[in-house]
DNA sequence: ACAAAAGTGTTGGAACTACACCCATGC
DNA sequence: GCATGGGTGTAGTTCCAACACTTTTGT
């Protein structure tokens, strides 16, 4: 019999990377019961001496080089009593983002899977993955979170592809460039990329002005008066 | 000795209400160790047959009439191993909002406290309260979350006061009205309020068009093309 | 020259801020 | 009338989407 009211607490990471046509999520294949053979999110038990963010970073480090993870944020708690077989488990899920040019080494049991064609997932990990993608989509609209999807330096076409993969619809390169530069999110590097084999004008290269999350679309009426920053 | 890796899981509610000059939070005064006499957020143990949202509503119902709580959303997990005395506890915090005209009956040990002058709080509950206010401020900018702060029917001046209390700075009534009506968030009721004792034109009364959270300020470049909704 | 890829100019419209002005009431 | 609180008109600005057009490359 378990101690009353004490619950196993897990942390989970939805690690997303934008492939040309779809977001991909990092999953590993379970070798043991329950749900043997199904694909699960990286994660594990919350340790006695760490908070949830430290814990998720520790568990993630077993699957992927943390240096490749450009952004981590808390997503949500999943606590349905029937989210998995007994004994009960509560999980704090995180969203992690890996730039599209990173291809970190992963263990044999671990692989990237297209989010639009997930394999059979363990527990509620499919639902958690979709929640992570939803969060990313929302934040692309009003923050500079794209920095965590893009290489250090990139062309507007590349960036357009990343936004399109995340959002699931076409994005105008022209307007993406103008909006993001107007807001100071993007800055030109001055250099250009070599054209492809079929020619074309060389693309100007940009970088994100900041590599930390920032809200870029505040509701101006509600900004403090007087002093601009 | 405790079962290894099993942790007590609490839920907590930051319940905010806008008073004329400051946000207020609902706190109760602890009668037992630890932290006897300090003020704590409503909440308690996660039960065996409920998820965290059901749990926080159950605990909250002991302090306040749930019918008065217009909006509840998950805030964040607080899990620092040293956030309180042993044994360790992890808490999922929620943000709850009560309209300014509601004055629900509360138990003797429970009272509203100005957030800008919190009493000595138990554990990390002061920090959690401030996180809740931060979330509210951010969401006022790009959602219709004001519905949960305002009475069913209100004048623009009243609404301006609620926004100003939440944000901590002056808000223009003129522009607040125009932006919110343009976005379809506010609709006029057609009736007016009686003027105060010193006269003045009677204020037109409005209501929120929806009483559920909705994002009102999407980044248009990133909207799906073709079909408008 | 031509195709391909990238970037710029431009136009019409919508959204926003600030400020002046007008309206309806109590005294 | 006058003070008070509330609402509207409007000008100037910025922001934005769409689309045509130009630039720079490879073949």
TrEMBL record, chains A, B:
GO terms for molecular function: 8-oxo-7,8-dihydrodeoxyguanosine triphosphate pyrophosphatase activity. Pfam families: NUDIX, WHD_NrtR. It is an enzyme of class 3 (hydrolase). Residues 6-136 form the Nudix hydrolase domain. The keyword Phosphoprotein does not apply. It comes from the Bacteria. Its EC number is 3.6.1.55. Keywords: Hydrolase. The keyword Hydrolase applies. Belongs to the Nudix hydrolase family. This is 8-oxo-dGTP diphosphatase. It comes from Actinomycetospora corticicola.
């Amino acid at each position: 019999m378990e101690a009353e009211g004490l619950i196993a607490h897990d942390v989970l990471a939805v690690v997303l990377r934008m492939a040309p046509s779809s977001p991909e999520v990092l999953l590993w294949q379970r070798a043991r019961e329950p749900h043997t053979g199904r694909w699960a999110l990286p994660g594990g038990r919350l340790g006695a001496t760490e908070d949830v963010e430290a814990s998720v970073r520790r568990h993630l480090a077993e699957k992927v080089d943390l240096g490749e993870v450009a952004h981590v944020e808390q997503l949500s708690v999943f606590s349905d009593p029937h989210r998995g077989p007994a004994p009960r488990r509560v999980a704090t899920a995180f969203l992690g983002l890996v730039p599209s040019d990173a291809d970190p080494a992963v263990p044999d049991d671990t692989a990237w899977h297209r989010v639009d064609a997930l394999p059979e997932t363990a527990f509620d990990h499919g639902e958690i993955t979709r929640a992570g993608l939803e969060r990313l989509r929302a934040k692309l609209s009003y923050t500079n979170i794209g920095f965590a999807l893009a290489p250090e330096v990139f062309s507007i076409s590349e960036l357009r592809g990343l936004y399109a993969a995340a959002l699931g619809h076409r994005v105008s390169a022209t307007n993406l460039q103008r909006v993001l530069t107007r807001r100071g999110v993007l800055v030109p590097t001055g250099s250009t990329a070599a054209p492809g084999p079929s020619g074309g004008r060389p693309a100007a290269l940009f970088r994100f002005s900041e590599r930390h999350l920032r809200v870029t679309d505040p509701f101006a009426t509600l900004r403090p008066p007087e002093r601009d920053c």
